[in-house]
Design brief:
- The chain folds into 2 domains: 152 residues, D-Maltodextrin-Binding Protein, domain 2, CATH 3.40.190; 139 residues, Periplasmic binding protein-like II (D-Maltodextrin-Binding Protein, domain 2, 3-Layer(aba) Sandwich).
- 44% of the residues lie in helices and 17% in strands.
- The protein has 15 helices and 12 strands.
- Strands 1, 2, 3, 4, 5, 7, 8, 9, 11 and 12 form a 10-stranded mixed beta sheet that branches.
- The longest helix is centred in the first third of the chain and has 16 residues.
- The N terminus is likely disordered.
Length: 337
């Protein structure tokens, strides 16, 4: 070997040693708002060294992954509704999340069949009442059908996804006949045509238009931090401990699945596991006053404000599969008319 060749070989070896190793990465497709998810993504990358390539979509996530087919770069799909995640699983574009940590941390009712999706945070749908005019602290959902609330109950449209999921949970637990009776009874109690948003029912309690309403818990949290008229709406209501008779509280979830053709499966599992850890659960849940699914997280903002949550044990996969039938019952009884 000539001196010139030896020097060239030495230089090449030095370059290879100096070159950084190929960084690990994971590709995330999500319909979550960037502001809610970015703190967790940044924390994950800082703690693990794995870069997250996030694609934020308003809608059409399932259709995009299907169109991309076997060459899809998606590793993790993260959405904000159990109906969405179940539809993704039913489309055959997921694979099981194989993780002892997931099995230990997430209750079976909050996972899809065969672990084809996993819940990350929870939003409870509970009853609120006028702090001044109603003197009770707990209620079952079926008590909303009591005639004593006639002309006093407010609710957003029955076909809205929040209520559709709630009615689907009632259907999964009680069957079509009882759910139809329930829908007719609470429709008979409304103070106004179902509509508006969840925060609007708090406004209407303050005005005296209604005494009782149903609302997602994170809206209560957001109103509690408001610096406008919504703070007054919050101060007018009292959240009740709300459960199905003999069961727990209805929840909807944000949830994640691993894509069937995930090119970075190991990193996908690590991201989901990280999002279930105490640090990420606190960051993620506090971003929108949602409840963590990790039972070891005791200091989340929603827990501090509203107390601990005991979710109903009806599998959310069963709830999702009853959403179409629940929608049909809403139309059948003319709930939104």
């Amino acid at each position: 070997m000539t001196i010139k060749t030896a020097l060239a070989a030495t230089a090449l070896a030095s370059c290879l040693l100096a070159a950084p190793a190929l960084a690990q990465s994971v590709n995330l497709y999500t319909t979550r708002e960037p502001a809610l998810l970015n703190p967790v993504i940044e924390s994950f990358t800082k703690d693990t060294g794995i870069k997250v390539n996030a694609v934020f979509l308003k809608d059409g996530l399932q259709q995009r992954v299907q169109a991309e087919g076997a060459n899809s770069p998606a590793d993790v799909m993260l959405v904000v509704d159990v109906g969405e995640i179940q539809a993704i699983a039913d489309a055959g574009i997921t694979q099981p999340v194989q993780s002892a940590l997931v099995d230990k941390t997430v209750p079976a009712a909050l996972r899809g069949a065969g672990n084809n999706w996993v819940s990350l945070t929870q939003r409870a749908r509970i009853v609120v009442v006028s702090k001044d005019r109603v003197k009770q602290d707990a209620i079952s959902y079926d008590e909303l059908a009591d005639p004593k609330w006639k002309g006093k109950f407010c609710i957003r449209a029955g076909q809205h996804p929040y209520n559709n999921a709630f009615f689907a949970a009632h259907l999964a637990r009680n069957g079509a006949e009882k759910t139809e009776t329930f829908l007719k009874a609470i429709k008979a109690n409304v103070a106004r045509k179902p509509g508006g948003g969840d925060r609007d029912v708090a406004r209407d309690i303050l005005s005296g238009q209604c005494d009782i309403a149903i609302i997602n818990t994170y809206y209560i949290g957001l109103m509690s931090k408001a610096t406008n008229e919504q703070k007054g709406w919050y101060e007018a209501i009292k959240p009740l401990k709300t459960t199905f008779a003999g069961g727990g509280t209805h929840v909807n979830v944000s949830a994640a699945a691993i894509a069937k053709n995930a090119p970075n499966k190991d990193s996908a599992v690590k991201l989901i596991e990280y999002m279930l850890g105490e640090k990420a659960q606190t960051l993620y849940a506090d971003g929108n006053f949602e409840y963590p699914v990790n039972p070891d997280v005791k200091e989340a903002a929603a827990v501090k404000l509203l107390g601990a949550l005991t979710p109903d044990t009806t599998p959310l996969g069963d709830v999702a599969k009853n959403r179409k039938a629940a929608s049909e019952l809403v139309d059948k009884v003319g709930f939104d008319n």
